[in-house]
Specification:
The chain is of the alpha/beta class and 434 residues long. It contains 12 helices and 17 strands. The strands form 6 sheets. A 3-stranded mixed beta sheet has the order 2-5-4, with helices on both faces. Strands 6-8-7 form a 3-stranded mixed beta sheet, with helices on one face. A 3-stranded mixed beta sheet has the order 9-11-10, with helices on one face. Strand 4 and strand 5 form a beta hairpin. The longest helix is centred in the N-terminal third of the chain and has 17 residues. The radius of gyration is 33 Å and the shape is extended. The N and C termini lie far apart (120 Å). The relative contact order is 0.06.
Length: 434
């Protein structure tokens, strides 16, 4: 009789464990692709543990939470705990149709990051989320009329085929760009800074009147740089409004700006840890000085010069940051916070991609040596010398930090070889008698 009760529980899911009991064995039924070890890792009970109906409900929740199964049933056969599962189908294929603005490779890569790729467990919730995410991607490109629909077809052996149909629509054009709050510079001059433009005779060729969220973000940064390079330290975009026409074909863009005041550099100071590098040598690299109009571009260039100089001295992990301190009298103090960090040494230099060219040929071109200080200039010069050999289409270099250390890096060169031989012919014309 107990066996019939257990069978009915498995078939109809009517769980009635009765009194608490001690597990003598655990059996998993219904597995196809998921391993039994995965299920055992999901349930926090073992042989010898005591379970009751409350424990069983918790086990069901834990197994469902894994996302591998669409149905879970637990029953008891005497003191044997029987876990019966029905796996979710696996994704057999993904077909894209209608996408042109976004390449299929990029879309499939994005889908894979969302958990939707061939061989993975199929979840309808994931497919619905991907549907919305794809529409958002097209909206960010200004394609407000884009629609995405998905289909899933059940296949034998618990598999599904997914088809994603995309209607991209047209990119919305810019009807008007308005700047509000600018007093120092006229709107026409500021609009020339932006990549997005009002429609013109050349717009059909340049496509500069097509809206996209990425271009707008880039234009906001350009506008900030324009002002901050001219002394307006506190300039900011207070708000951005993008309005869409009812037919979703055109947009109106409004940027509300706060220019702030124009500032002059009063003092420049170098602070931080330079180790054995002379402060005066670093100060000579600064492109800002008292009396100048503040310029974010000069500050950034100074940071890069300091970081590069320290990198050439072996301080590969050095950092430099110029922080402005604004005063009410229209002046600004600049503090360059520099941290040389520890001097880095090169543990190993390796090459990848050279199937024909021997390592010895490449190593004799290097100016950065193993065991020596890691010099940014020597590493870059080594890369240039490898490129000048003429053996490679492309040369790349990476300098990853050695795990478990604070002062060692590896220098990894990756090369792409090009055909080493070529055939040429010279045509000799017969001499014509004079």
């Amino acid at each position: 009789m107990k066996r019939w009760v257990a069978l009915l529980c498995l078939l109809y899911g009517s769980i009635s464990m009765g009194d608490a009991f001690t597990i003598s064995d655990i059996r998993i039924q219904g597995l196809q692709r998921v391993s039994a070890g995965t299920v055992f890792n999901l349930i926090p009970v073992n042989v010898g543990d005591t379970v009751d109906e409350i424990t069983v409900r918790q086990l069901i929740r834990l197994i469902f939470k894994s996302g591998y199964f669409r149905d879970v049933r637990i029953a008891r056969d005497e003191n044997i705990l029987i876990v019966s599962v029905a796996e979710r189908p696996a994704i057999d294929s993904i077909e894209l149709d209608g996408n042109k603005a976004i390449k299929s490779e990029a879309l499939l890569e994005g889908l894979a990051q969302q958990g939707l790729k061939e061989g993975e467990i199929f979840k309808k919730s994931t497919l619905e989320r991907v549907n919305l995410e794809l529409e958002r991607q097209y909206v960010s490109q200004g394609r407000y009329g884009a629609t995405v629909s998905t289909e899933s077809e059940e296949l034998p052996r618990n598999r599904v085929a997914i088809k994603i149909n995309i209607v991209e629509g047209k990119t919305a054009g810019i009807k008007q760009i308005n700047l509000v709050g600018n007093k120092t510079y006229p709107q026409d001059e500021l609009l020339d800074v932006l990549e997005l433009k009002h429609p013109s005779l050349l717009s059909f060729y340049k496509n500069d009147d097509k809206y996209s969220r990425e271009k707008l973000s880039g234009d906001i940064e350009k506008l900030e740089s324009f002002y901050q390079d001219r002394g307006y330290v506190e300039f900011q975009i207070e708000s951005t409004q993008v309005s869409i026409t009812p037919d979703k074909q055109q947009v109106y863009i409004t940027l509300n700006v706060d220019e702030g005041g124009k500032y002059t550099v009063a003092d420049v100071e170098l602070v931080g840890e330079l180790n054995d590098v002379e402060p005066e040598a670093i100060k000579q690299l600064l492109l800002v000085s008292p009396g100048q109009t503040f310029s974010r571009a000069r500050v950034t260039a100074s940071e890069e010069r300091i970081t590069k100089a320290l990198g050439n001295a072996g301080y590969t992990f050095a950092s430099a940051s110029g922080i402005p301190q604004v005063h009410d009298d229209g002046t600004v103090d600049l503090r360059f916070f520099v941290d040389a960090n520890k001097r880095a040494y090169v543990r190993r230099i390796s090459f990848e991609g050279n199937t024909i060219t021997q390592d010895e040929v490449l190593r004799r071109e290097l100016r950065q040596m193993e065991g020596g200080w890691a010099s940014t200039s020597l590493i870059d010069f080594s890369k240039v010398r490898l490129e000048r050999l003429g053996f490679f289409k492309e040369v790349n270099v990476e300098t990853p930090e050695v795990p478990g250390t604070e002062d060692q890096i590896d220098v990894n060169f990756s090369v792409e070889e090009q055909p080493s031989g070529s055939i040429s012919a010279t045509w000799v014309l017969p001499r014509v008698p004079a």
